[in-house]
């Protein structure tokens, strides 16, 4: 399990990084961020890039910037930096809930948020978060920078809208207003494994009624997805166990599963129900 | 295309000038280039944790990083835990609590535990158990590993 | 914990810390990959990507052309080397099914070695291996041992043997039975999967005309003899060395194709050759185990007492017969009756080949499987006649008065005679320790509150201390240093510490001062290695005998010098003392040894040295036994099974070091948990392996471990050896599948629901009441 040969580049600026990507696009140039997916794939020779462009030496990419309504996560921000203390309020709580389920500490100290998005695993917690909160991806190439909505970015199982000569510079997430309730549930066979099924639920309550409900599921679908039927059911309704049960059933019934499978449907229902019930 | 690069790894406080191919993993270079074979590999794909070392104080999987990326960085491995003949308290606790059988996972667990306890000497028991779930041991059933690390954590808290 | 108990060197039975640990916690271990020699080259194996097919051609040109590649071999280059043999048992006719060291004309499993590449470094070797192209014409695959046998080769079928055993009149018992209970059960394919992969480093030392093989484990002497035979060398010119071994569990240390390939290459290429298996190779190349399908019927009386068992099983051996021959099937057949009184028994074990990785032993071979099967049967009988499963077991357990109990069966060529045991007594102790009655009330309350919780039991009988013999040589030099050389091996269990403790007990020296040498064919002529929980029993007994002899020699030598009779003397604190005045040291063992040197006047005409070699012989195994109790909770939403609490009670006759025994048991439980709930080598319908990484083959982590309690009992010492010991290596894993299956049934409130291992959340979920 030794990687095949490649040429290594460690650019010091974003301009250099995208120039290198453009120059070597024909020879399978790939960005190296945390390496927690790339390196094992190379060790198994499932990936044999001709050029690796290590972005870790570019100053500033490890920055998280937080405004009142949004967080910008640079391309080298590690999973470990995105715990509950990264932001106040419900948004921080949600980050903490998710981060805890991503692999284990020694992987979280290296793996990056944006790397997870670029990798687009069906069971990526961060992809789920981006979909749940309508995040946006800041992508850059020699041609310039563009913003891509998470929904448009994630095309399917491990495929994204990123062009070969493009890299992710940052991810942008709207934060959640104070008082928003956030819940997350994940089922994996073992602690730290990729999820078989997971769900995020967030909502606020105004005058006893649910507002701004967001439900997203992952693991059971080829890419993270929202559950519009369940959200519609919740919107304006009074939160109670029967409602959550019905919403979870709706989410499961309409989920475009990777394959028709009663067990996966049932897991979907469980995850959504527990995310909703656990939302606090 | 096996271009070599000269890099310096600061391993347990000693600078090692080594010549590496970009594809050489950090664990391979620690072992073969620096001759520190205490760090092991059990999977080379990030799951088992046998290769755990501290990179600038943080636990990482040394099989999931290329050595060239660690040029100039501080790396600590199991060989750096003891002070001469005086064992690190984790090493002593592992012996006292029979936390190793074959000993293959031991260096990884020691470095993982060292990383956890150094980051948070007041670490909660839940966080400790969660943290120690990162690595695999095939011999001990973990019972005594947990006991040993708990004992050191209790000493640190006291 | 570190301090030695003072007087008289009483170290047996104490939880002293291990001799092994110092270098291991410092990172100074020497595992296979840590062994390096100047000018070494690296071997990489090219493996079949297809499960079954004719090997049409192998193109090695591109690989050979790569700079830094030294050689590429295919079968044609090694055709003179015979296939890898197996250790003889009573079963005949397995020879045609042995594995060639490189595939000859036909590949029979995905992962089979078809070529090897030798290169200057491991990265290059892998580059070159990638360039070797094997052209294979696919053949239909056989992946289920229950299907009718196919042709293995012209004239041979994929059923090399049927293991049959029988006693009593089975048909008569069924004819008169009150009732018959029948079951179909399966155990999944999983294995030892030690954390260290295999490794082999060979070098030929022309100066001494010795071929050395490093990275070995478990069975050095047998392997040495076979390597010598297969390569046409003299055994004295072949030395096997064992460094540290990162876990054995049955699979490590067997003779595999790679061991012979590195040896052959070291001879032919004139440079040291190093091969380190990687994890993905390990998952398809190193022995698998366990996969068996069982159909059995039991004849019972109105009280649920067993009258007869009629069992058939299909053992999925994988593609070839390996070094164990049909041992797992043999042990399954022999150990299935377990702790119960049984008047008639018939078993047919179909030993069958499939297109999967070859299988062999994994910790508690044949017992993890047969305990699962037998204990499922006991639960089913209890359900059938409506009695509590514990009571049902009580009715069937053999009594202390039945011991020794001859089973009228043989296992591994020895007659099964259960040597000692108080089965019912241990059952009572375990239930009391676990708080079984209170637990039942607690579980009822939790169920009433909506939880799916249950408790289960597995009773097991182990076997240990397989003979025929083992020798130990102890020497005391003129500095007083004690060296113990054993033909045993160590795979990380603490063999050195245990043997040192036994030796120290008699010599009254500090166990930490004893150097234990094991796993080296150049230091002792014979040895039987480390497997089947045999080391403490066999090598431990030999150590005891050799230490007694050293003591007698020391006293005999000292007596005239002290103007005393030997029987007035004894040892204390490593010194000869008078029994009458034991506080006064008269002469140290060092001084005695000095008097026994070759120049000493005392030794003229005699063989010098305070050295003794003693052998322990045994033609019967000893049988430890125990109880596993489990509490599980099932998650209604996901089908996930959490094992909340677990107890293992294990009677091992006498515990030389209780801390190490408990460690063995805890480790066994974790592995058993893997086999019961997580681990499985899966294949797709084309025979492609699906569990080739640690992300697919799920080894339990700390987070999956239950709260574990271990009860080490010493109620029934073995009458078969001087220490009374029985092996402790396998009781921890033996009953896990059985106990968890029983507990999951209980949680589901569906007796007999669980018929296969591993128990998967998906299946459990499908069984939940809607
Ligand atoms: C044992 C183990 C368990 C894991 N469990 C989980 C889990 O439960 N959940 C989970 O979500 N993940 C898990 N992971 C994956 C981990 O989170 C990775 O860190 C993550 O998927 C990829 O991030 P990275 O920074 O390591 O990316 P890399 O490995 O460096 O790159 C991954 C891919 O993304 C591309 N890429 C990376 N960054 C950029 C960028 N800025 N622009 C363009 N392309 C880029 C790379 O070219 C490559 O193709 C696990 C990994 C391991 C080893
Ligand atoms: S060897 Fe690095 S995690 Fe297994
Ligand atoms: S002690 Fe052997 S793997 Fe942990």
Termini separation of chain A: 45 Å
> How does the helix and strand content of chain C classify structurally?
alpha+beta
Q: What is the helix fraction of residues of chain A, given as a range?
A: 25-40%
Which small compounds were modeled alongside the protein? flavin-adenine dinucleotide, FE2/S2 (inorganic) cluster
Provide the low-confidence segments of chain A as ranges: none
Q: What spatial order of strands do you see in the largest sheet of chain C?
A: 3-5-1-14-11-12-13
Chain-averaged pLDDT of chain A: 97
Question: What would your notes on this structure say?
Answer:
The complex is a heterotrimer of chains A (280), B (158) and C (770). With 280 residues, chain A is of the alpha+beta class. Helices cover 31% and strands 26% of the residues of chain A. Chain A folds into three domains: 7-54, 2-Layer Sandwich (Uridine Diphospho-n-acetylenolpyruvylglucosamine Reductase, domain 2); 64-174, 2-Layer Sandwich (Uridine Diphospho-n-acetylenolpyruvylglucosamine Reductase, domain 3), CATH 3.30.465; 181-279, Enolase-like, domain 1. In chain A, helix 9 (241-254) runs antiparallel to helix 10 (262-278). The longest helix of chain A has 17 residues, at 262-278. The model of chain A has no long low-confidence stretch (mean pLDDT 97). Chain B has 158 residues and is an alpha+beta fold. Chain B is built from five helices and five strands. A five-stranded mixed beta sheet of chain B has the order 2-1-5-3-4, with helices on both faces. In chain B, helix 2 crosses helix 5 (143-157). Chain B is globular, with a radius of gyration of 16 Å. Chain B starts with a strand and ends with a helix. The relative contact order of chain B is 0.16. The model of chain B has no long low-confidence stretch (mean pLDDT 97). With 770 residues, chain C is α+β, with helices and mostly antiparallel strands. In chain C, 28% of the residues lie in helices and 25% in strands. Chain C is built from 20 helices and 31 strands. The model of chain C is unreliable at 1-9 (pLDDT under 50). The chains are: A alpha+beta (280), B alpha+beta (158), C alpha+beta (770).
